[in-house]
Amino acid sequence: TRLRTVTGVQTCALPIFAKYSSLLHGFASGFLLACNTLQIDYSDSLFPDVIVGMFAFLFLTEIYKGRHSYSGNMRHALMATSFFYLGFLAKEIIIFTLPIVAMVFVRDVLNKNNRTFWNYLIPMMLSGALLLIGVYYYITGEMNFIYNSVDTRHSEFYILQTASEIFRRYTYLPALMFANNVGYIILFILSVYAAITWKRTTQDLKDNNPIYFFSIYLIMLLIIYWFAPISFRYLTLIQLDPRMWMLVLVPLYIVGGFVLAGIAREKESKTFKLLLYLFSAGIILSLIFDTPQRALMFASFALSAGICLFLTMKKIFKSNLNLAILLLPVFILALRFTTTNSNFLNP
């Protein structure tokens, strides 16, 4: 129930992309989010990762809206601050959103933009930090209680000790984790498509479009998760548990939804051919390194791209129909995952 509530809130927040990008984009991103098997898997668990992902998205959405609105700067700043510290109370990992905030702040300072919004946001964020530290100090008597707790209960336990561990963790292990998890791999294939066709797929976007903002956020998150130690005393990186990386899911939904919406509007067959090639590569790699079942999953997505390719070559074009065909395997995958991992069919 808690996950359904969180997913519902995130899905309802995604209409910002319907406003600033397109209705198809907002729908596609929301659909990818609601049908993600990783989130369904944690639907009855008490882990805070989905919740902190929601608050991180809402925090950055308010930052984006505050920077691009001509009124309500104080309201957006107050909402952003509230979402950040509510997320922090859920899980401290929300601080990974701060590098992109710092980057856009420096950019605005250099360009002398959005001063009113930042004049509200920065004092509010600093006041929230002082209040949080003060409350923890009053309760525990320790000024640095939060960091010390994370350091002793997590960082010390998961320290990388051997050269082999360090090499594997800094190179291929995160990629292997993504490849082995259905909740990530399809979204990453769509992100690869976005990277390959970035110049062409974004040529009609304005510089202040949220796609740029959240794409940069995704890149920065991946760099932090992949390479940044989370301790000043130990060489500890984020644990390679798919649950621990769920902050990455929201920008993946956004980029993936943008890709699918753009593909659905395309009238050129080469667009669907590239998507078909990427999923076909997934089939081949799955047959070599994984299981036929995983290859079958990629085959369903390749089939959807192939159907759209056939319709395009026959000059049968309708963006809503293309998007429905492309999203159908996502729905089938979520439905199958739900029925096979529950007592839905055997109450």
Characterise the protein shown here.
Helices cover 74% and strands 0% of the residues. It has helices at residues 2-13, 15-20, 23-34, 37-41, 49-67, 73-90, 98-111, 115-140, 145-155, 163-170, 173-180, 182-196, 198-201, 210-227, 249-265, 269-289, 292-313, 319-340. Helix 1 packs parallel to helix 5, helix 12 (182-196) packs across helix 15 (249-265) and helix 17 runs antiparallel to helix 18 (319-340). It starts with a helix and ends in a 7-residue tail after the last helix. The model has no long low-confidence stretch (mean pLDDT 86).
Write a concise keyword list for the protein shown above:
347 residues, mainly alpha, 18 helices
Shape: globular
Q: Can you tell me the residue ranges where pLDDT is under 50 for at least 5 consecutive residues?
A: none
Indicate the radius of gyration in whole angstroms. 21 Å
Distance between the termini: 18 Å
Structural class: mainly alpha
Strand content: under 5%
Mean pLDDT: 86
- Order of SSEs, N→C? HHHHHHHHHHHHHHHHHH
Q: Helical residue percent?
A: over 70%
Secondary structure tally: strands: 0
> How would a crystallographer describe the biggest sheet?
none
How many helices in DSSP terms? 18
